[in-house]
User: Fold these one by one.
Assistant:
Number 1:
Amino acid sequence: MILCDIGNTFLHFYYRGRVWKEKRNNLSQKDSSEVVIYISVNQESTRSLLLSHPYCFDLTPYMNLDTNYKGLGIDRIAACNAISDGVIIDAGSAITLDIMHDGLHLGGCILPGIAQIQKGFKSISVLDCGINLSVPLDTLPQNTKDAVSYGILKPIILLIENFSKNKKIYFTGGDGKFLSRFFENAIYDDLLIFKGMQNIITAKITSKGIYL
Amino acid sequence: MILCDIGNTFLHFYYRGRVWKEKRNNLSQKDSSEVVIYISVNQESTRSLLLSHPYCFDLTPYMNLDTNYKGLGIDRIAACNAISDGVIIDAGSAITLDIMHDGLHLGGCILPGIAQIQKGFKSISVLDCGINLSVPLDTLPQNTKDAVSYGILKPIILLIENFSKNKKIYFTGGDGKFLSRFFENAIYDDLLIFKGMQNIITAKITSKGIYL
């Protein structure tokens, strides 16, 4: 059984303890006797997967979450199924924040990813100066590059602080490891979505004797 | 005497108590007996102004500010010359934050403007859903449009709060009026940059008997 989380930029795979990502136009051949169980937020990439592998299974109809939120992305539903209490930050091309409390999803928000925010400066040439990821966030910037870097990172950090309060923070996604360093009560877990998928598979499929 | 602040998107004019903005490719004819005193962060727009009006005066060489910040934009220097204590937020295509204390500039930062941050969602079609400017910022979002709107506005508000602490906040720029509504200790002043220019003109030029 291979797990696959199809995002907007990459297809993320999990197989026997190993995670890796692939671009949709360059998918590797996988053992055709293994089922690929997937969730997806990108139809084009889903088509590429279905064309590249003979035996795929869409987990979407089995996914659910106790929430009032309308239109929650399937990747966020999966990550929320991995924990029952805490804040989940998935920092990729977009950054999503979701709060779980006693197995209930309380709500969430979405901001552009770090690279996307940086693109917001492209139209103003003097501000298109790259990002200093080690800019001090506890002192006031004194030059343009630090001012831009601070203006990208500090609002994200403040939002996460404001969101998480005393809850444990679970980071995942490409920029998750970097962002997790700013918080004491945080862990980085690149398996979070796969753990949520696995919980669903165990609870809804294999426990009912369905063979994949 | 007409004052002009040349930004990245518009040329902003001040004349006899009235302010207005013009695009660089559609500049109006002005009274040719009046000098246009300008500062600029955009060379192309400066050229357009110089071609459209016979008598222009660049205030840049007269501008100064007590600061350790390297590369502060001339429009920010002008705005900082308008006050001696407080936080200045110029919310246009970029949002700049600057702190003044006893006439000294302590530092500042820059983030993309609201419209620019919104563009960061364009590449993800499901998130390109527009912005709800009246999204509640004290409750957790429960749908995609609110989650995106919250993710654009809340980090900006938190950064301004964190920056300003108990200082008075002076908002200017296109989104300044909207953002000022989130703060009690704030005023919106669309003349801030012109007031700073006027202070420089009074202190450095007309007080010395230079005739413009």
Note: Helices of chain A lie at 43-52, 74-80, 114-119, 144-164, 176-180, 192-205.
Number 2:
Amino acid sequence: AEPFSQLPPILHRLHEAKAFKGLSFESLAKTLGRNEVYTASLFYGQAKPTLEDIAGLSKALGVDEQGIIDEVGSHWWPNRGIGGAIPQDPVIYRLYEGVIVYGHPIKSIIHEKFGDGIMSMIDCKVNVDRKPDPKGDRVVITFDGKFLSYSQN
Amino acid sequence: AEPFSQLPPILHRLHEAKAFKGLSFESLAKTLGRNEVYTASLFYGQAKPTLEDIAGLSKALGVDEQGIIDEVGSHWWPNRGIGGAIPQDPVIYRLYEGVIVYGHPIKSIIHEKFGDGIMSMIDCKVNVDRKPDPKGDRVVITFDGKFLSYSQN
Amino acid sequence: AEPFSQLPPILHRLHEAKAFKGLSFESLAKTLGRNEVYTASLFYGQAKPTLEDIAGLSKALGVDEQGIIDEVGSHWWPNRGIGGAIPQDPVIYRLYEGVIVYGHPIKSIIHEKFGDGIMSMIDCKVNVDRKPDPKGDRVVITFDGKFLSYSQN
Amino acid sequence: AEPFSQLPPILHRLHEAKAFKGLSFESLAKTLGRNEVYTASLFYGQAKPTLEDIAGLSKALGVDEQGIIDEVGSHWWPNRGIGGAIPQDPVIYRLYEGVIVYGHPIKSIIHEKFGDGIMSMIDCKVNVDRKPDPKGDRVVITFDGKFLSYSQN
Amino acid sequence: AEPFSQLPPILHRLHEAKAFKGLSFESLAKTLGRNEVYTASLFYGQAKPTLEDIAGLSKALGVDEQGIIDEVGSHWWPNRGIGGAIPQDPVIYRLYEGVIVYGHPIKSIIHEKFGDGIMSMIDCKVNVDRKPDPKGDRVVITFDGKFLSYSQN
Amino acid sequence: AEPFSQLPPILHRLHEAKAFKGLSFESLAKTLGRNEVYTASLFYGQAKPTLEDIAGLSKALGVDEQGIIDEVGSHWWPNRGIGGAIPQDPVIYRLYEGVIVYGHPIKSIIHEKFGDGIMSMIDCKVNVDRKPDPKGDRVVITFDGKFLSYSQN
Amino acid sequence: AEPFSQLPPILHRLHEAKAFKGLSFESLAKTLGRNEVYTASLFYGQAKPTLEDIAGLSKALGVDEQGIIDEVGSHWWPNRGIGGAIPQDPVIYRLYEGVIVYGHPIKSIIHEKFGDGIMSMIDCKVNVDRKPDPKGDRVVITFDGKFLSYSQN
Amino acid sequence: AEPFSQLPPILHRLHEAKAFKGLSFESLAKTLGRNEVYTASLFYGQAKPTLEDIAGLSKALGVDEQGIIDEVGSHWWPNRGIGGAIPQDPVIYRLYEGVIVYGHPIKSIIHEKFGDGIMSMIDCKVNVDRKPDPKGDRVVITFDGKFLSYSQN
Amino acid sequence: AEPFSQLPPILHRLHEAKAFKGLSFESLAKTLGRNEVYTASLFYGQAKPTLEDIAGLSKALGVDEQGIIDEVGSHWWPNRGIGGAIPQDPVIYRLYEGVIVYGHPIKSIIHEKFGDGIMSMIDCKVNVDRKPDPKGDRVVITFDGKFLSYSQN
Amino acid sequence: AEPFSQLPPILHRLHEAKAFKGLSFESLAKTLGRNEVYTASLFYGQAKPTLEDIAGLSKALGVDEQGIIDEVGSHWWPNRGIGGAIPQDPVIYRLYEGVIVYGHPIKSIIHEKFGDGIMSMIDCKVNVDRKPDPKGDRVVITFDGKFLSYSQN
């Protein structure tokens, strides 16, 4: 199903306005002064917009500010996570496959480089870049998250 | 359960020898002239070693080369994917959470930057780096995969 | 449930118009100058129509072009995958059974003929043909996908 | 896990002997006078060998014929289906993805070309071929199955 | 949930009209000149009605013929399978239990009587009869399906 | 996996002895004076043998009677149900498909013929017969179970 | 979700009327001359009301009799089973826990007292009673079901 | 699979000794001065034996007391719950069906008789009795559990 | 999806009124004279409000009292449990992770400190506090539940 | 199954030695100078012991230090998470129930007290205490975890 079908309805409105204006997340991110993935996450209910974000979105998209505030304003907190446990869309499945196949190797290397702990997915910046390559351009996805050490003393 | 409990037994031997010698995947990768995540993947049955890889592992770890060839030699092909559909280990779960939470935003941005297609998880290099940071060092995981365009004419 | 119940509503309109006009995917594919499975995939939200596809569909089916553009135009990207993880419809289940029963033999043969890698399901043409046979005509389904070699250096 | 870990142990022996002799399924199929996918299916317990098949395998692989008969002889019937409901190995997953993404389009076309019925996965020949292509060779997988019409009078 | 809640709405109308007229599937089957289970399957979207079936249903039930054609006419193909993977209703669960408990014994006997193959569920007639018995009448359910032999040469 | 891998080991012995003697369930059923499906169910741990059954099996198969009694004698009660919730083997899956597709139609007809209740799967005889047919012989599976009326007064 | 959200809408009306009138299932059961659990089951679509039940409910609750007949009259048959496979509500989960923890001990004792067979859940009376106890009153739930012997001769 | 296959091995020994001596749980319960279901639960690892229970079991069954203490002595705590989430054995499934079908009616009645709370499955006595009945003897299973009131002030 | 989408609609109204008034659960709890988690649970349908709670909520939030009574008044009982079996939202997942990782250690310690039994989740107070810490403030969640001893005599 | 059946075998040895010596986790924790839940987690493979922990365990339990080092020494990293996704043991299930029932209320309160973020389960201390109470002693479980703020700028 469409990924925003169960999100607050105003987010559907934002998607429509963005499509109507022909804006990309990249340009909206610049307008908001925000990270691009963070900006896209706002549209999928996966991040909490600040009032500045809401003002910026309202202005850039021509959507009534109060309407946005009413649904995803300061009282609203994202219920993060979209879709079933195993993604079916091929773009997202490939990321999932990366976890299933390379999860244990990555885990071992994190432990060897940092010790016992995890890469935070909360204090984490995500980037998606296009890298030109004569054999075919490449997608470069970066997760840059703070290492958190297990502490149980 | 231990992640290599269902892998070819020789891989368990390689893990033991590596532990006994106190080697890291980073140093082994340098010895083999290979990417670090690729090197770790060999130990988890998630990549297919070349004969050069096997010779290098045998020498570095002091494990009989023919024994490695017998189990994961040229006749052997990895059955990729370890563990259940939803990871329970917190290190690996955080990566999974990244897919569940940021999958749709990432997908949208890939489409906006490249069009209809995917980032290949086959022609993909994975890196795990340590980035010093005064507020706490950071894990930087990079997926660098070729963009593949949908072709259905 | 009906397979298009969760797709963009315009696709339901396209199905209705096609039924009303008594058109087959085969004839629509010829009209569009497209592969037949690709054409059917458009109706199930499993492929992204070009603006030419949309113009062609609008003309052939008598559905307002702008209405199609509004829902599945250039801003729209398919969320591929329909239905539950294990198909229940017998036609589709038989394909699934082919994967469950012949998946490992097929994998082994791909490796023997090509080495370590996969058949792309992105750069892949799918055909469904009718082959006359005195003992009963046969369905011939062909997946013709580019081999992608694992690259982890 | 290794795909033959729960199959009759003699099949594991056949895999080992095949690896030791350096034989491919293609050459074994020619020796047996059999389809290549069928031949590979014998090694994964997904097809029932005839006594001629067993004699041929015994001779080609140097494995005691009676030992094969004892485990997978005329009294034995395959319990078809290997692995979990959703494949994790990328090669097999891509086939599964083909079913999830193109299943409904394929179903519609089968109905339009044949009426209400299915493509048999029992009376079905499966082939895996290598098609040279200057942009990269292609895997061509063909399912050629008898159409079976629903009959409920 | 009610089993027809996700079926084409006209089928719900047919159920209502049948209830209002107090007709049984047995009498409707005679009117249509059809098998009783087939007739019931039409009401649950599990079989494809012919135009004669639709005309007969329209007449017997007093439901507008064109309305039926619009939803489940010649352009419509059943998406077979209703409900979750494991039935909860006790009547249907008992059938499922029959498969879970007696499936392997039945499979063995089919193989011993016919060889390697299956009973077709496509070319299969299903009957439900009432057999008088002084100790309590009995339900007799019969699956009469063509044997299909595995063919992989 | 092989269906008897988790059953009492003596049942595996009975399967082997039956294979070695080349006996069918049909002939064993005649020897025991029992229904054929019941007889096969004994071999899969899905029915409880009487001491007469055990004596008969011991004699017919040449397996030590006390050994059978020790494992599946009067103290032993079957834990019925084999395999996962959704069968993968095509023979058994077709039966399951019968339940998923025809379950609701069958349920409706049982109610119309008998009222509110079920067909017992406990007081139920199961038969598998071969019916000659010039267009291809047919498998006829019959479930003959007592109707049980819901009683809640 | 509310347990009656997918039941015939009239049942929701009955719940509302019962709440509005402040009636308990206990008093309604007395009015109907019925078992209390049976009476509650009518409100959850888990039992089939007789016409006398419907008349009684109509009178006691002030709900139009024909409206009840239209939805759950003689043409209607319960589709028994509410909610997911594993209950989440703590009251119902405790019953489920009773099955998971004490199921095998109960099974063993049934076999020792009765032989090979089951307690019918069809011919079964269920009662819920309050037993005064100085240490805290107790709930006493009784399942009183006919023993059914396995019959496979 | 056999229900004790994953329990402490000594429990398997207790089952064997009980079978060898031909003792019932009923007689063992009398010997121990314990409830019958409790006694059976000890054999399935679903209750924690006291040292008196162990001494009594050792004497009644002729199994070395220290051996029992070593495995399920005072240091051992039951990990309650046996088997998958949905029982397949028909005896246990019927109990599960009772929960799925009558769970909500029972819950409503508990609330009406006691208020907001649950029947404890911890402070709960379970009994299985045989009730003679000319129409066929009946199994009577009783859960007698303390009512626990929700307390959140 | 939003967590209250399947709850009684009045609860959605309460959430809206609370947001509009800018009230926190902490302040509402003080107004009601109630525990904070209990107060929040009322808004998610996870606790049963008393009539005093309803009066207090009505007054504090300006929502019609009768409207609240109509939906969640004395006739209404919570159906506890929200969302799927495995939480996806990171806040709630972390709690789940606590159970998966520390469940067995906690169980062992409860047994060592109390014997065989459980911590009640019914007679249990839950608190969420903010603890200042120079290295970053901490969340302190406390479950304070009555120990219940297993009683099976 | 026993919770340590799939853990490194040395942990089973530690459990046995602890039982043989009659030591509690509380006393071991004091010996090690460690938190009690952390200490218990070491025995279940849910925490990584330091070399000091290992030395302390070896001494307190009389288990060979090198043997512990060989299996869970500095090269070893815990694969955290034990058992299935939904716990069956009642002690652990009650914790799970706390998450399912109170997860959303807790989440709301965390957000109101801290803003958008989570309670870390990595930098988290867990305590299990016994609180005397005349109405029955109480278990007090405390999760004390650092608040982590979402950072996506």
Note: The mean pLDDT of chain I is 95.
